[in-house]
Amino acid sequence: MPPEWSHSSHEVSTTDNEPCSRLAEQFQRRLRSVIGELRYEKWFHNRTTASIAGDVLTIGVASPFLMQWMRKEFQQPAMLAARESLGLSAQVRFDVDPAAAAQLAEMQARLDTDSTAVESPASATVPPATVPLNGATPASDARRDRPAANRLAPRRRRFASLDDFVTGSTTHVAHSIAKIVAEHPGEQYNPLYYYGGVGIGKTHLLEGIHREVRKHYPDWNVLSLTAEAFGNYYTKALQERSLPAFRKRFRSVDVLIVDDIDFLDSKKGFQEEFCHTLQELISYGRQVVLAADRHPRMLTHVRPELSTRFLSGLVTRLEAPDLETRKQIASRQCMKMSLPATEDAIEFVATKFSRNVRELIGALNCLQTYHHLTKRTVGITAAREVLKDLERDCMRIVRATDIQHAVCNLFGVQQEDLISPRRSRNLSQPRAVAMYLTRQWTQAAYHEIGKQFGGRNHSTVMSAEKRMKEMLARNESIQISTRQWSTQEIVSTLEEQLQVG
Description:
single chain, 501 residues, alpha/beta, GMP Synthetase, Chain A, domain 3, Rossmann fold, Helicase, Ruva Protein, domain 3, 4 domains, 5-stranded parallel sheet, 4-stranded mixed sheet, 11% strand
């Protein structure tokens, strides 16, 4: 059964009259049907934890090793089961859960007490497909006494707080604007559009705005969802011929908060409906808050009337937190997790996992698992040993073809044209940008870069690099389609895409 609309806040949630056990059983039955009885019993039944908050179903596993494998193996079938059971906007996440890790530690303690020769999954070196999460060991008494349906009982979504957002030099302005909008929605900065890389706090700010608005204006209708969920509900309304009801739901809210707005890129039908919704809300002074990975001008396949709507308010960029901010985030997260870690271990994590906050928290989850298994304080030596594989896996190796692909997407040219002998202006400028970035991001020599761009000689690459440095120093502009972009903005945008690609 798809989720209903909550009349108090218009967030997507289950109705009070639908038993939680029924919803949980629907998901379990559907997942069993999709992956089969044997695989379900081996990998999910009494071997994972699960929680449902709003439209997000989180499946907890015992270790990062198992999390990566289960995400790869079960993400799609779990998503299918969740959407059929919880609604079109349902999302599935796999995460390391200390409770699951604690079960492993408990099992290991029992095995040690019994002096058995069975190897613990935490130290096993066999492939993941041969290691059940909790083997055949029963769960703890507290978990065993609870029915399976209650373990999956849905809870209302917990929105992050703006007070918990750790601000730094790169995020202070964005946080201050969120406070202003939450206290005085619809009065200024409408629409408010956040953009930036993955995992740097956009969703946190959106959730914080939702929470603050609900606190200051408890009688207001506040709707928070993703652009994909908007598209799913619109498609369902088309199929059921219920567009009037759909539009009434979306256009009667006081505050609309939409995440991942770049999902609408290239989807003309969704764009038209969203554009009319946006126009209706703003014209009546209703607040709209949006977030995306890219600047509105970088959404190259969005209708002009929609992109100009985005630009008519305030567009604010979020950048990755600096080292000091990451250290504060790591310290606060350790306190929240009750993880005993030394200062040098926290600094090591903050230094090594610098691309986004999600990777940093994932590293701390690994250390939390280590602490549960060993009961030891996490020092610098343990942190280096536990995280060495994760640090290696998180390294982003950028190739010349990656850069060429990103530049082509931005400038709207074909890769074969980029490396062709043609010298027209619409190709020479993106080619110079690509050569410059290849020199900055790879260890390739000038003559090697020339070969990767259609067999050009080293002097051509050197000239392109020199020209780009001069343009960056003078902050000159380059025309992309019908708009002028500063070279600094172009380079920064492309580098963000390369970092998260």
